[in-house]
Amino acid sequence: MHLNLPSTPAPGDPAGIRPRKPWLAGLLSFLVPGLGQAYNGRSRRGLILLGLGCAWQLLGIGAAETFNWWAVSLAGYVLFSCYAAWEALCAAKALHDYRPGPGNSLPVYLGLVVALATVSLLAGVAERQFFPIYTVAQTSMRPTLRTGDRLRCKALRPRDIIRRGQLVVFEYPGKQPLTLVKRVVGLPGEVVEVEDGLVYVNGDPIEEGYYASRSKDAQSLDMPPARLAPDEYYVLGDNRHASFDSRSYGPVNRTRMLATPLYVIWSVGSDGEWRGDRIGLPAR
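Request: output the structure for the sequence above.
Response:
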């Protein structure tokens, strides 16, 4: 791609006039906001737009906690890129007698690209650290979660409080390297019992308003009373009769808790079916 980088006159062009290509200016600023402005010789405006684009990406991480704000932040950045492209394209149309200057050089262009790429990389790393993404691979959380749901989660910090009824992503407390998602039904220090698929905490049944599927005929669902240690949690699947959970491998230690699901980003079934109706559904 020819960017008219040299500032010296070309053969047969003693005046050194290099008209700007509107389509190229627009494309550059859409890909890297501000790059098209630098191509047009408007370095200061280009740096302002680049700075805004970088700030948008970094600050947009905080919008990931709710689907609506995340979608608005993403759509806003796309519109911002379109504005930068339109502005660069319109400005380039008027530059018929443009003479490239010191700012029209490959190092300047590369510097802008590297700056945005670096910020994008840092923003991506930070978002994955604080808002990791996991894919549901079991049927144990139906109907709340379905196989193929892609979940954006919020990483759990040591000081975060885990409450009863909360969904958690955790490491399987065994030798196999598995990552599971279940619902917390028992908290540290409590006595938990499962009888006929119903959960009793300290002798009293708990309210399970998340429509857990239970089968009173399956004795394998039962679990005798067990007192949890100060750092242990009892977890069960909503699809109670088809869940591999604390009834099989016991309580889960707090140190194994990784994240809590926030919402479904997208969902694709095992048959490749795209479930558009699940996009943005809260995971709770």
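The chain has six helices and eleven strands.
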